[in-house]
Amino acid sequence: MTSQNTKAFLSLxxxxxVMAALVFVPAWTFDYWQAWVFLAVxxxxxxxxxLYVMKTDPALLARRIRGGPFAEREPAQKIIxxxxxxxxxxxxxxxxxxxRFGWSRVPxxxxxxxxLLVVLGFLAVLAxxxxxxxxxxxxxxxxxxxxxxxxxxxLVRHPMYAGALVMLLGIPIALGSWWGLLVIGAMLPALVxxxxxxxxxxxxxxxxxxxxxxxxxxxxLPPVW
Length: 225
Description:
Layout: H1 3-27, H2 33-56, H3 58-65, H4 75-101, H5 108-131, H6 159-174, H7 181-205, H8 209-215
C-alpha cells in the first residue's frame, strides 16, 4: 500500500470516528439505531468509493485528499469551507440533540429512506469521479485540465454539488430528525457562494469553460437553476 493510500484510509477512519463522536456524545446514548445504520451506510459508501479511486485513478485520489479550509488558497474559499464544515458538523449534531430531547419524530421507514438518499448522493459522486479526473477538493486548475461536458456534466454544470445536496438532505432524515433539515437552509448560501466563485474561476482560467456554460444552462437542478 502506498503512502497516499495509507493517508486516504487514515483520513477516512478519522472522519468516521469524529462523526460517531459528533452523533453519540450529543445524543448521550448508544441506543440510537438510526445513528448506527447511518454510520454504517456512510462508512461503507465512503470505503467503497475510496477503494475504487485508489485502483482506478491515483491522481484523482491525490486531488481529493487535499481538502478543507486550510487547503484553499483564496481567503474567500477559506471562509466558505469553514462555514460549510461548521454546517456539516451541525447537520449531525442537531439531529443527535433532537434524538436526546425528543424534539421531533421521523417514522422508521422515512429514516431508512434518508439512508437511501445518502447512498444516492454517493452514487452521484461516484459518477462524477468516473467522468472527471480533475475533480479536486479545492478550487484549482491542473496543468492538463480540460472541460468535461459528458456524463452528468451534460445535464448540470455542477453534478458533484447536486449529489452532495441529495446526501445532505438525507443525513438528518436518516438520523431521525426534522429539525436537522433547517441546517441545510443555513448551509445553502455558503454552498451557492462556493459554486459561483468556482464558476468564475473556471471561466477565467479554463479554456472552453465559458462556451460550456452557454451549452449547459443549469447549474444544479434542471429546469430550476
